[in-house]
Design goal:
Blueprint: E1 4-9, H1 14-23, H2 25-28, E2 32-35, H3 37-46, E3 51-53, H4 61-70, E4 76-80, H5 90-103, E5 107-108, H6 111-123, H7 128-134
Parallel strand pairs: 1-2, 1-4, 2-3, 4-5
Helix pairs in contact: 1-3, 4-5
InterPro entries: Methylgl_synth, Methylglyoxal_synth_AS, MGS-like_dom, MGS-like_dom_sf
EC number: 4.2.3.3
Keywords: Lyase
């Protein structure tokens, strides 16, 4: 099953993202990839993957991905954040992460969690959508 995957990386994490996506290119080639501006360009320059590019994060790219999350059109987000650098668009970042929590979208914010999610994706262990939609908000088992 093809998944829609967003790839976002802060400036000091872009090289790490490119290395990660390159290492897992055989997995990513079976999915629809989305990324914010420069991150998407760098991934496409370093791999044979096609990536739909949104605007740069500070210029609204995070919000564009957030719109897909809000309308339940995104399946997974890998967002390599730089926790040691203040981001001028921090409210947009927090809003995106909040939307992921509201919609139950898996999001990885570091390389270790990213690897766990991509390995699960590769194994086909990604039945979370069926579990999330089995119980509607407000319902109990």
């Amino acid at each position: 099953m093809s998944m829609k995957i967003a790839l976002i990386a802060h400036d000091r994490k872009k090289e790490e993202m490119v290395n990660f996506v390159t290492a897992y290119e055989p997995v990513f080639k079976h999915h629809q990839l989305y990324a914010t501006g420069t991150t998407g360009t760098r991934i496409m320059d370093s791999t044979n993957l096609k990536v739909h590019r949104f605007m740069s994060g500070p210029l609204g790219g995070d919000q564009q991905i957030g719109a897909m999350v809000a309308t339940n059109e995104m399946d997974l987000i890998i967002f390599l954040r730089d926790p040691l650098m203040a981001q001028p668009h921090e409210p947009d970042i927090i809003a995106l992460l909040r939307l992921c929590d509201v919609q139950g979208i898996p999001v990885a914010t570091n390389i270790a969690t990213s690897e766990i999610l991509v390995k699960a994706l590769d194994r086909g262990d990604f039945a979370w959508r069926e579990l999330v939609h089995k119980y509607k908000p407000g319902e109990t088992e």
